[in-house]
Structures are given as structure tokens and as C-alpha cells.
Amino acid sequence: MVTQPGLSNKKELNFDLNLMPVIDILSVCICFLLITVVWTNVGSLNVSQGVGTEATGSADNTPAVWVYLKQGGQVVMSVRNLNKKTNQHDTSFSGNRNGGIKWSSVESFIGHLKEKAPDLRTALIMPSKQISYEDIIKMMDRFKKSGIEDVGISPL
Amino acid sequence: MKTGVSILENQILKSPLAGTSSLRPGSGKKKRSLAFTLMLTSLIDAFSMLVIFLLMNYSSANREVEIRRGTELPMAESSKAIDEGTVVEISQGKYFVDKQQVSMGHLAEVLSNLKAKIDRTAKKAGEKDQSKAALIIQADRKVDYSVLSPVILAGSRSGFHSFKFAVIQNEGQSSGGKQ
């Protein structure tokens, strides 16, 4: 028993820490957080409807990339009005062996395009009817990652 | 066990194992105590770690989105936190607007009515912000574009110009999202 020296009466200096309330509070916190926790974060990719709205009206002379997604993984990218000139350059990528899109080629082309034209901010995606939703989202994601923020999608 | 003896003192002077040992039971005069002390420190450590982990994972920014069973959303890295808007779900070829099933032919009509209602509400409230006039589209990642296109067409004809595709944020994504 620890006592304070110099005192005649024995005064105990040890104290008991009552841990039960701490455990209670931690249990309540854990229960609350387990109920409200979000295990999968759902986000959103924001796009504008690209045909017949103000989005394309303003894009008449601004540099833009028109992306045609065709069957068999073929992708045709048409760059328009680059470097303040009314011109059009088409680049085509064939699909891979499985009929899917060659994402590495598409990504490197978008990166190269952005380096060449840093003010390029508009892209319009024109998918064909057999293209999967996942591929469209991937294409939009690639554009947004590279800094081309105004992505539009055209209905069939 | 002696009454009035603190738990700490008991632990220091007489360990639970030594107290129940049959080889050297301690003083022969005292009765062997079968009570044992519960080590709560490790339990509190574990609880603290759990609470800290769950607090780090907690996010109140995201709107609660219900995903239908069997629907796998596509993944994206450059996504933003999901905001307010009208939810259109596509599941097994059926269209649901705010959880009510709608046929493809009536999609434009239903969306037009909804848009008119949103505009009226916004006008009454004096809101200039049109963020509520967004269409949130939820669909399985394997769905063809031919199924999605009617929703986009109907939405644009009804006056919705902002479309948000619900995606699952990839790991390494900040909570605010980046675009």
C-alpha cells in the first residue's frame, strides 16, 4: 500500500479507475456508427445532354472532341476547331481481340491531345446502341481525369 | 477475497494465475480465492480502434441512395458526391421514376410533370439554383446504351439538362470527389 512519507496516518494514494462507463460509451458509439456507416460510396458523374441544347450551341467554334463508340470496340475520335481553326482531325482505334475498347490507346491519345491543346474542355460522346453502359462511363471518366470537364452524351 | 482491497492492489500483489495455482497456493492459512480480475485495458483498446476507424469512414455529405438488388453500378474515379435530383432507375428492362414503375412510352410525360412540379416549387421558394432539376440515372453496368438512350431523350425533352450517372467511387477517391 503506497503512502505519503512523513504522515502518521496511513493515507492511500492509489485510486481505482472505473472503466465501466468508458466501455458503455464506446459500445454506444460503435453501435451508432455501425448502423450509420456507408461501406460503398455512391457518387455521380455529371454530364450534359449534348445535342440540341446550349451545350452544343456554345461549342460551335470552341475546340471539342467528338467520340464515336462503335461495335467491336472501335473508337473514332474527331477533334474539331483545334487551335482556333475550323478544322477536323479524325483518329480511329480498332478494338482488341475480345471486341473491347483498347483503353490504353484511348488514354494516351487523350493525354497527348490535352498536351497539344490545353484549352480543350469539351467532349461529346456518341455511342452506338450495343455499347455497354460501363464503357460509356469509363470513357467519360477518362475525359474528366484528363481535365476535359464538359462531357456530353448524345441520345440515339 | 478481502473486502475493501482495490482491484489494482489485488492485481499487483496476487496475480489470478498464482491465486489459482495448486503447486504454490500461497499462504496455507488463507483460503484460495477463485475470483479473477478481468483485464479491461485490451478491450478498451480494441473498442477505441473500432470507434476511430468507423469515425474516419463516416460521411454525412453523401445523399442516401438505394440500389436495387442485382444492380451493379459502374465504377469511376472522377466522380462527385451525389446531390439532389430525380432518380430514374433501370432494372431488368423496366424504368422506375422515384421508385414508381413507368412504361417507356410514358417516360417523357412523367418526367415533364415532375419537372413542372420542381419548377413551381423552386419558384415559390424563390430559389434560383437549378440543382434539383437534375436527373440521376441508376443502371446496371452491363446494360446496353439502347436501354439508356430513351431516358436521356425523355429527360432532355422534359427540360432536364443536367444528367448524373450514379457510379461507385473508386478507392483512393477523396470524399469531395474530383472532376
Write a structural description.
The complex is a heterodimer of chains A (156) and B (179). Chain A is an alpha/beta fold and 156 residues long. Chain A is 31% helix and 23% strand. Chain A is built from four helices and six strands, in the order αβαβββαβαβ. In chain A, strands 1-6-5-2-3-4 form a six-stranded mixed β-sheet, covered by helices on one side. In chain A, strand 3 (75-80) and strand 4 (88-93) form a beta hairpin. The longest helix of chain A is centred in the N-terminal third of the chain and has 17 residues, at 20-36. Chain A is elongated, with a radius of gyration of 30 Å. The model of chain A is unreliable at 52-59 (pLDDT under 50). A six-stranded mixed β-sheet of chain B has the order 1-7-6-3-4-5, with helices on one face. The model of chain B is unreliable at 173-179 (pLDDT under 50). Chain B is 35% helix and 17% strand. Chain B is of the alpha/beta class and 179 residues long. Chain B is built from five helices and seven strands, in the order αααβββββαβαβ. In chain B, helix 4 crosses helix 5. In chain B, helix 5 (145-158) links the parallel strand 6 (134-139) and strand 7. At the A-B interface, helix 1, strand 1 and helix 4 of A face helix 1, helix 3, strand 1, strand 2 and strand 6 of B. Strand 1 of chain A pairs antiparallel with strand 7 of chain B, so a sheet runs across the interface.
Ranges of chain B with pLDDT <50 over ≥5 residues? 173-179
Q: What percent of residues of chain B adopt helix (DSSP H or I)?
A: 25-40%
Structural class of chain A: alpha/beta
Overall morphology of chain B:
elongated
Helix content of chain A: 25-40%
Shape of chain A: elongated
Structural class of chain B: alpha/beta
Strand element count of chain B = 7
Helix tally of chain B?
5
Low-confidence parts of chain A lasting 5 or more residues at pLDDT below 50?
52-59
What is the topology, as strand order, of the major beta sheet of chain B? 1-7-6-3-4-5
Mean pLDDT of chain B: 77
Number of strands of chain A: 6
Major sheet attributes of chain A: 6 strands, mixed
Order of strands, main sheet of chain A, comes to 1-6-5-2-3-4
In N-to-C order, the SSE pattern of chain A is: HEHEEEHEHE
What composes the largest sheet of chain B? Answer: 6 strands, mixed
- Oligomeric state, counting identical vs distinct chains: heterodimer
User: What integer is the average pLDDT of chain A?
Assistant: 81
Order of helices and strands of chain B: HHHEEEEEHEHE
Strand composition percent of chain A: 15-25%
